[in-house]
């Protein structure tokens, strides 16, 4: 379990919505975030600042009770930061 705070921003074309949540799971492909799900919808683009990972972006792939799954828009820098974070978690286990 990653269990780190996240601040998310989404520009819906008119307003920038800001939400805060907590990352509970992180993988090479994305994160699971507990948050107010009324602020997001499937397919929505999200900019995130995740403690320990920095700035990452992605799209909401699934909204569920109490949270959302967000897939990273992967680039080489993001893959390296996520791999380092996961490696650090594995060393703690």
What does it look like?
- By secondary structure, this protein is α+β, with helices and mostly antiparallel strands.
- The chain has one domain (4-92): Thrombin, subunit H, CATH 2.40.10.220.
- The protein is built from one helix and six strands.
- It is globular.
- The mean pLDDT is 83.
- By DSSP (H or I, 4+ residues per run), the number of helices equals 1
- Across the major sheet, the strand order is 1-2-3-6-5-4
CATH-wise, what's the superfamily? predicted glycosyltransferase like domains
Ranges where pLDDT stays below 50 over 5 or more residues in a row are: none
Could you tell me the CATH topology label.
Thrombin, subunit H
Assess the beta-strand content as a share of residues: over 45%
Class derived from helix and strand content: alpha+beta
Mean pLDDT over all positions: 83
Which percent bin holds the helix content? 10-25%
Distance between the termini: 10 Å
Principal-axis shape equals: globular
Return the CATH class. Mainly Beta
- Write down the secondary-structure element order: EEEEEEH
Sheet with most strands: 6 strands, antiparallel, barrel
Please count the beta strands (DSSP E, at least 2 residues each). 6
CATH architecture: Beta Barrel
Query: What number of structural domains do the residues give?
Result: 1
Q: Which terms summarize this structure?
A:
93 residues; Thrombin, subunit H; alpha+beta
Question: What topology emerges from the helices and strands here?
Answer:
Blueprint: E1 4-11, E2 16-26, E3 30-34, E4 45-50, E5 54-64, E6 67-72, H1 76-92
Antiparallel strand pairs: 1-2, 1-4, 2-3, 3-6, 4-5, 5-6
């Amino acid at each position: 379990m990653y269990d780190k705070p996240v601040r998310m921003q989404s520009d819906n074309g008119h307003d920038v919505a800001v939400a805060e949540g907590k990352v509970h799971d992180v993988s090479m492909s994305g994160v699971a975030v507990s948050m107010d799900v009324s602020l997001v919808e499937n397919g929505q683009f999200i900019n995130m600042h995740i403690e320990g990972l920095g700035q990452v972006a992605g799209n909401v792939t699934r909204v569920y009770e109490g949270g959302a799954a967000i897939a990273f828009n992967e680039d080489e820098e993001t893959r390296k930061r996520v791999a380092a974070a996961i490696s650090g978690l594995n060393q703690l286990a």
